Amino acid sequence: MHRVLQIPLPSFFVSCLSSVRFEGHQPNHQFYQNKKDYFWRMSSSPSYKQDLPPPGGYSSIPFKRVPAKTFFSGWALIGGYLGMTAGAAYLYFLNCKSVKATELEMKCASFALYPMLLAERDRAYLKQLRKNRDEETELMKNVEGWKTGTWYGEPIFYTKDPDSLTDPMYAEFYVHCSYKDFMTRGGMMLMS
Amino acid sequence: MVLTESVNLPTEEELTVQEVNLSGPALKAGAFHLGKACEFENNEFVLCRDELKDPRKCLAEGKAITNCALNFFRQIKKTCADEFMQYVHCLDKSSPDQKFEPCRKTQTVFDKCVKDNLGIERPPYDYYARVHVHQTARPRPPVEGPTVYEDATPGLPPDAPKPEAKYGSRYLFLW
């Protein structure tokens, strides 16, 4: 058990070190094979309990596949899908038909009113054209060489019949109106 | 403006007639019966506008339409005023764009009244979208032929010889 220190040291130092080392339980590597053995040797009441399977043995490991419950087969699913789609398509067709009929009815009401409204519009339009032409004549009466509807006698169209009615441009039609009316009409054109 | 003094425009007096002074819902409520009552005038006017493409030449037809529509609405006012106004209110208040669906009940009442008093049956919903044959005494406007230019290059005489191409023609799969 005694271990002699081979290092030459002063005598007081040797005694001190020796006492410390011998008081503690330093493992002797030649006797104790590992640290555990050393521990149990030192305990006062060593009791062992071997870890063993439960009585009757372990239960088997559940490694088998557990598939989900199937309510429909693949063919049934495809058939169901086709059936549902067919039913929905029929309902869609019915709805579409009714919507189209509604739109057509609205359109037909407009068609029935169209000639009357067009006749009214034509009269108002021709009235306004005459007003515009008179206004231009009145406005340019002091300008020498000015002829209404032309640029100092130079017409816009040469080969057209002089009596043919050419629709003026939008800005020309509103040229004598206020700017607000002009823009309002433009906005209405966009809205309608 | 583009209009010169040589363009004949009708005067204010020629263009001033009594217009149909009704609002949109009222016109819409009477639209189907109006179209049936004034069918001939409507077709005549639209045919005129389509053939001549000039609003100045169809003023008489337009006035006839307005007169017919006025007479129709006067008759409605005389006989079915209550039913008509009920229908108009329904159209006006039920939807933003005067749909016919919400007003089938009032429409039925109005239709019955018009049929009993004026003898006009409401045409089917797609009547005015169908093709109709219109019998008219209006002369057909002359068809304008192709423009003939005096200085155009004279073409080959009709009996000019047409020999085969001397060197054939190229042929690349299709042409």
Automatic annotation (TrEMBL), chain A:
GO terms for cellular component: mitochondrial inner membrane; respiratory chain complex I. Its main location: mitochondrion. It is a single-pass membrane protein. It is found in: Mitochondrion inner membrane. Coiled coil: none annotated. The chain crosses the membrane at residues 71-93. Keywords: Electron transport, Membrane, Mitochondrion, Mitochondrion inner membrane, Respiratory chain, Transmembrane, Transmembrane helix, Transport. InterPro entries: GRIM-19. Accessory subunit of the mitochondrial membrane respiratory chain NADH dehydrogenase (Complex I), that is believed not to be involved in catalysis. Complex I functions in the transfer of electrons from NADH to the respiratory chain. The immediate electron acceptor for the enzyme is believed to be ubiquinone. Involved in the interferon/all-trans-retinoic acid (IFN/RA) induced cell death. This apoptotic activity is inhibited by interaction with viral IRF1. Prevents the transactivation of STAT3 target genes. Complex I is composed of 45 different subunits. Interacts with CARD15, but not with CARD4. Interacts with STAT3, but not with STAT1, STAT2 and STAT5A. Interacts with OLFM4. Belongs to the complex I NDUFA13 subunit family. This is NADH dehydrogenase [ubiquinone] 1 alpha subcomplex subunit 13.
From TrEMBL, chain B:
PROSITE patterns: CHCH. It comes from the Eukaryota. GO terms for cellular component: mitochondrial inner membrane. Belongs to the complex I NDUFA8 subunit family. It is found in: Mitochondrion inner membrane. GO terms for biological process: mitochondrial electron transport, NADH to ubiquinone. This is NADH dehydrogenase [ubiquinone] 1 alpha subcomplex subunit 8. Residues 139-165 are annotated as: Disordered. Keywords: Disulfide bond, Electron transport, Membrane, Mitochondrion, Mitochondrion inner membrane, Repeat, Respiratory chain, Transport. PANTHER family: NADH DEHYDROGENASE [UBIQUINONE] 1 ALPHA SUBCOMPLEX SUBUNIT 8 (PTHR13344:SF0), NADH-UBIQUINONE OXIDOREDUCTASE (PTHR13344).
